[in-house]
Write a structure and sequence with these properties.
The complex is a heterodimer of chains A (124) and B (305). Chain A has two helices and nine strands, in the order E-E-E-E-E-E-E-E-E-H-H. Chain A has 124 residues and is of the alpha+beta class. Chain A has two domains: 5-86, F0F1 ATP synthase delta/epsilon subunit, N-terminal (ATP Synthase, domain 1, Sandwich), CATH 2.60.15.10; 90-122. Chain A is elongated. A five-stranded mixed beta sheet of chain B has the order 3-2-1-4-5, sandwiched between helices. Classes of the chains: A alpha+beta (124), B alpha/beta (305). Strand 4 of chain A pairs parallel with strand 6 (216-218) of chain B, so a sheet runs across the interface. Chain B: Its main location: membrane.
Chain lengths: 124, 305
C-alpha cells in the first residue's frame, strides 16, 4: 500500500476539498512542483492555475486555484487560495462566455480567471 | 360607542400592526444570525492555516517586512471602524462608534494623528454629521460581506502603511469592530492589526504546543512573506466583517424582540383601559336608563293621584 498524504484545499470562505492523496501537482511562482508523501516541509507561493490531486483510490481531482499558498509538513498538505473551485463545479460555457467578455472589455484579471478555469477543466 | 373607547380601539389596532412588523423583523434577523455564524465558521479553516503559515515564516526566518516593522516614532495611525448600513439594531452602531472615539482620543493623547476609515452607512453618517474628515469609506455590503469586499478595504490600508509617513502614510493600523461572543453578548473591541507582531501571532497559534518544522521556502522567505502578510491582513479584516455582520443581526434580533414584547405589553394595557372605558359606558347607560325609568315612574305615580 502506497504512502498517503492528507490534503486540505481551502478557499477564503469555505473548505473546498479534503482527503487522502498520493501526489499533488501545483504551480508555484518558480515552476511546477509535485509533492509526494514524505516531502520535506515546504511553504510556497502559488500561481493562478490548475492544481492536480491524485487521490489514493486512483482518481484525480483538478481544481482551479486563483493565487494562494501551498504548505506541506508532517504529511499534511494545505492549499490556501482566495478563490478555489473544483473542475467539476466549473460551468464551461459560462467560463467561455466570461473569457470572451473579458477579452472584449480588456479586463485582464477577469480574463486570467476565466482562462484558469478553462485550463482546469481541460486538465481534468 | 363612546369617544374614549374608539380612541383606545384605534391605538390597539395600530400597535398590533407594529407588533406584527417587529415580530417579522425579529424572525428574519434570527435566521440571518445563523447564516452569518455559518459564514464565520466557514472562514475559520483558511484563517487558521494562514496564521500557521505566517507563524512558520516568522519563526523560520529573520526576514524584515514593512508590515512587521515597528516605526520608531509613530506619528500617524489609521483607524478602521466597522459599522452597519442599516439601523434598528439597538446600541450596536453607537457602541462601535463610541469605541472608535475612545481609541481615537487615546491615540491622540499619545501624540498621533488619526486617519479614520469607515465601513457602513451608519458610521459614515455619524462622522459626516459632525463634519469630520473620513479618509475612505465603504458601504453597501455589511449585511453579507464577501472576501472581495475585505480585499477592497485592505488594499488602500496596506498601501497607506507601506508609504512613508511624511508622504501621507500611516505607522499603525487599528481596527474597531463588534465581536460576536454569543447570541446575547456582542462587544465592541479595538485591536492593533499592523504593524504585525509575529511573536503575538505565534503565541496565538501555538496553543496546542506543537513545534513547527523547518520549512523550505519557495521561491524565498522574503517573497513568501511578501505574499503572505497582505493575505493575512485581508483575512483578519474579512473575519472582523463577518463577526460584525453576525453581531449586527443578533443585535437587531434582540432589539426587535424587545420591541415586540413592549408592543405586547402596550396592547395589554390598552385593552384593559378599553375594557374599563366600555364598562364605564355601560354603567353610565344603565344608570341613565334606571334614572330615566324611575323619573318616568315618579311622574306616572304623581299623575295617578
Amino acid at each position: 500500500m502506497a504512502a498517503e498524504l492528507h490534503v486540505e484545499l481551502v478557499a477564503a470562505d469555505r473548505s473546498v476539498w479534503s482527503g487522502e492523496a498520493t501526489l499533488v501537482v501545483a504551480r508555484t511562482t518558480s515552476g511546477d512542483i509535485g509533492v509526494m508523501p514524505g516531502h520535506q516541509p515546504l511553504l510556497g507561493v502559488l500561481e493562478s492555475g490548475p492544481v492536480t490531486i491524485r487521490t489514493s483510490d486512483g482518481g484525480t481531482v483538478v481544481a482551479a486555484v486563483h493565487g494562494g499558498f501551498i504548505s506541506f509538513a508532517d504529511n499534511k498538505l494545505s492549499l490556501l487560495a482566495e478563490i478555489a473551485e473544483l473542475a467539476d463545479e466549473i460551468d464551461v460555457q459560462s467560463a467561455e462566455r466570461e473569457l470572451e467578455r473579458a477579452k472584449a472589455e480588456g479586463d485582464e484579471s477577469a480574463e486570467r480567471r476565466a482562462d484558469v478555469r478553462l485550463r482546469a477543466v481541460a486538465a481534468r | 360607542m363612546g369617544a374614549q373607547l374608539r380612541v383606545y380601539k384605534r391605538r390597539i389596532k395600530s400597535v398590533t400592526a407594529t407588533k406584527k412588523i417587529t415580530k417579522a423583523m425579529e424572525m428574519i434577523a434570527a435566521s440571518r444570525v445563523v447564516k452569518a455564524q455559518r459564514k464565520v465558521a466557514a472562514s475559520t479553516p483558511y484563517a487558521t492555516e494562514l496564521t500557521r503559515a505566517v507563524t512558520a515564516v516568522g519563526t523560520g526566518s529573520n526576514t524584515k517586512h514593512p508590515l512587521t516593522t515597528e516605526a520608531e516614532n509613530p506619528t500617524r495611525a489609521a483607524v478602521l471602524l466597522l459599522t452597519s448600513d442599516r439601523g434598528l439594531a439597538g446600541a450596536f452602531n453607537s457602541n462601535a462608534i463610541k469605541a472608535a472615539e475612545q481609541l481615537t482620543a487615546r491615540l491622540e493623547r499619545e501624540g498621533k494623528e488619526v486617519d479614520i476609515y469607515i465601513v457602513g452607512r451608519r458610521g459614515v453618517a455619524h462622522y459626516n454629521f459632525r463634519e469630520r474628515k473620513i479618509s475612505e469609506q465603504w458601504t453597501g455590503f455589511t449585511d453579507a460581506p464577501s472576501y472581495g469586499d475585505a480585499k477592497k478595504i485592505a488594499a488602500p490600508l496596506i498601501e497607506a502603511i507601506e508609504k512613508e509617513t511624511a508622504d501621507g502614510g500611516v505607522d499603525e493600523l487599528h481596527i474597531v469592530y463588534t465581536e460576536f461572543v454569543s447570541m446575547m453578548t456582542q462587544t465592541a473591541v479595538d485591536s492593533r492589526l499592523l504593524p504585525l507582531s509575529l511573536k503575538e501571532v505565534a503565541e496565538e497559534s501555538q496553543t496546542k504546543g506543537e513545534i513547527l518544522p523547518l520549512y523550505d521556502f519557495e521561491p524565498s522567505a522574503e517573497d513568501v512573506l511578501d505574499a503572505l502578510l497582505p493575505r493575512y491582513v485581508e483575512s483578519r479584516i474579512y473575519n472582523a466583517l463577518l463577526q460584525s455582520a453576525a453581531s449586527k443581526h443578533a443585535a437587531t434580533r434582540r432589539a426587535m424582540k424587545s420591541a415586540t414584547d413592549n408592543a405586547g405589553d402596550l396592547i395589554e394595557n390598552l385593552t384593559r383601559l378599553a375594557n374599563a372605558a366600555r364598562q364605564a359606558d355601560i354603567t353610565q347607560e344603565i344608570s341613565e336608563i334606571v334614572g330615566g325609568a324611575s323619573a318616568l315612574a315618579d311622574a306616572t305615580a304623581g299623575s295617578d293621584k
